[in-house]
């Protein structure tokens, strides 16, 4: 008789947990997974996927406006929030089913219940005791809450996909990915948007000139930004009115407040402390490069470890772990050179070192930029310029970073990220023939 109920038990059926469980099962392990909410996790249920559908849906506002310059007469256009919301929620349902099917077709036993740790090999799963040889914690992260008085009056990105109606005025707390992306979505949909950031810049970590370009374009589009403005309190005035006071004494009224101030690790009540599982100061689980905690048979991947909080990274971490533990193919994830995107209007995409980082870490740096108006924007008479930047190590000629803002930047960046990851040189980029006429051809034409 087997010593444990499972060879591998995964807590959390999000991107990292689902990938790890099905790969482990494919390697012959007996695998169970527990999920207390919905299978698919943040990315599928209340993150990347529904957000991207809102980004696409809201961008039609610009496209329909521009269409007139291309000869289209679109009379009587109107927008129906409930239609977009219901369609995207239906797509989320479809994807959840697909994820469940993936688990069952890979013989992973799904427990739709909350799991907590009792000891290094024992879990409480919805009141039932389950034992496992190896345990993976893949519980992700949750939206941070404003900690000022009245902070609980703010909604989070979890709630935004379920709104009964669009607000007229939204205040967004924060200046990261979620704040920037939802500022763009709401603005495109005609909502009055104010982004209130506690510090002096948004999108920390992204290339300065690219972020400045986004600020410039967003301001022209009507998004308002307030900096160095930590929240002091939030008060409800009536059903449709919140009064937000910043520590500078400034008062803002809004009918919706969205808190987008980072995502702490989802660890509350898991039982980490009793087992002595080491955590970082922000609560995230400490792991080594093989995703192992300080307890030999307990592992963690994804947002709960706060290495790089991105779905594709969680997926790779989960995959690497399953291959290592059960497939006889040990490998680890390279957390450097991870490409990323902000789905603003227009979007930003980035990989590798920013110009600032390169100047601080390399001897000499060559920077190439292309500042241009996309063909469509020229004919549409839309005063919106794209900016591409390549950062090159002058000693080796290698491309060490690429940063861009402009239409389809994330789609273009995925290909360029291969060049940066592979360590191609600027000369090799230059030797590549352009595809004309495209925006992406700028990459091979920068001199
Ligand atoms: P981010 O970490 O991107 O940004 C958090 C923002 O909130 C920062 O501007 C920060 O300011 C501010 N902030 C932090 N704490 C407080 C506080 N207590 N009060 C007020 N402001 C505060 O967080 P998000 O919530 O936007 O996103 C969470 C994570 O989800 C991201 O790190 C990202 O990895 C992932 N994500 C990725 C997306 C993508 O790939 N396109 C989309 C959405 C999310 P300061 O700069 O001063 O610290």
Automatic annotation (TrEMBL):
Residues in FAD/NAD(P)-binding domain copies: 6-318
The keyword Flavoprotein is annotated on this UniProt entry: yes
Enzyme class, spelled out: oxidoreductase
GO molecular function annotations of the record: glutathione-disulfide reductase (NADPH) activity
InterPro entries tied to this protein: FAD/NAD-binding_dom, GSHR/TRXR-like, Pyr_nuc-diS_OxRdtase, Pyr_nucl-diS_OxRdtase_dimer, Pyr_OxRdtase_I_AS
Listed Pfam families: Pyr_redox_2, Pyr_redox_dim
Membrane-spanning segments: none
PROSITE patterns: PYRIDINE_REDOX_1
EC number: 1.8.1.7
Entry keyword annotation includes Cell membrane: no
Positions of the Pyridine nucleotide-disulphide oxidoreductase dimerisation domain: 338-446
Keywords from the UniProt entry: Disulfide bond, FAD, Flavoprotein, Oxidoreductase, Redox-active center
Reported cofactor(s): FAD
Domain of life of the source: Bacteria
Family per record: Belongs to the class-I pyridine nucleotide-disulfide oxidoreductase family.
Protein known as: Glutathione-disulfide reductase
Biological classification of the source: Bacteria, Pseudomonadati, Pseudomonadota, Alphaproteobacteria, Sphingomonadales
């Amino acid at each position: 008789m087997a010593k444990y109920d499972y060879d591998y038990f995964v807590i959390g059926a999000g991107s990292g947990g689902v990938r790890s469980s099905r790969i482990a099962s494919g390697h012959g392990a007996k695998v169970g997974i527990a999920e207390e909410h919905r299978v698919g996790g943040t990315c599928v249920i209340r993150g990347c996927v529904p957000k991207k559908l809102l980004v696409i849906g809201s961008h039609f506002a610009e496209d329909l406006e521009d269409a007139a310059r291309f000869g289209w007469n679109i009379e009587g256009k109107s927008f129906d929030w409930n239609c977009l919301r219901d369609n995207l929620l239906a797509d989320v349902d479809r994807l959840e089913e697909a994820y469940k099917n993936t688990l069952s077709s890979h013989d992973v036993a799904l427990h739709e219940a909350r799991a907590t740790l009792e000891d290094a090999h024992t879990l409480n799963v919805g009141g039932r005791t389950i034992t496992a040889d190896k345990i993976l914690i893949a519980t992700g992260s949750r939206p941070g809450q404003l900690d000022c008085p009245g902070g609980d009056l703010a909604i989070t990105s979890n709630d935004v996909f379920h709104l009964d109606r669009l607000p007229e005025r939204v205040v967004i707390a924060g200046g990261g990915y979620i704040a920037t992306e939802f500022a763009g979505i709401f603005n495109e949909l005609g909502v009055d948007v104010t982004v209130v950031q506690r510090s002096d810049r948004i999108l920390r970590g992204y290339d300065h000139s690219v972020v400045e370009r986004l600020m410039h374009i967003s301001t022209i589009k009507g998004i308002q930004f307030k900096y160095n403005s930590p929240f002091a309190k939030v008060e409800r005035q009536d059903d449709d009115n919140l009064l937000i006071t910043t520590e500078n004494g400034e008062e803002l009224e809004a009918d919706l407040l969205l808190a987008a101030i980072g995502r702490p690790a989802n660890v509350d009540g898991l039982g980490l402390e009793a087992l002595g599982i080491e955590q970082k100061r922000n609560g995230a689980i400490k792991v080594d490069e093989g995703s192992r905690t300080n307890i030999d048979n307990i592992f963690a991947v994804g947002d709960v470890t706060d290495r790089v909080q991105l779905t594709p990274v969680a997926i790779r971490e989960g995959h690497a772990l399953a291959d290592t533990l059960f497939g006889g193919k040990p490998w680890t994830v390279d957390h450097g050179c991870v490409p990323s995107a902000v789905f603003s209007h227009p979007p930003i995409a980035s990989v590798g070192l920013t110009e600032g980082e390169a100047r601080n870490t390399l001897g000499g740096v060559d920077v190439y930029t292309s500042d241009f108006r996309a063909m469509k924007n020229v004919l549409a008479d839309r005063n919106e310029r794209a900016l591409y930047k390549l950062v090159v190590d002058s000693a080796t000629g290698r491309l060490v970073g690429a940063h861009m803002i402009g239409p389809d930047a994330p789609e273009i960046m995925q290909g360029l990220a291969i060049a940066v990851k592979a360590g191609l040189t600027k000369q090799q980029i230059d030797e590549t023939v352009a595809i004309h006429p495209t925006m992406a051809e700028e990459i091979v034409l920068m001199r």
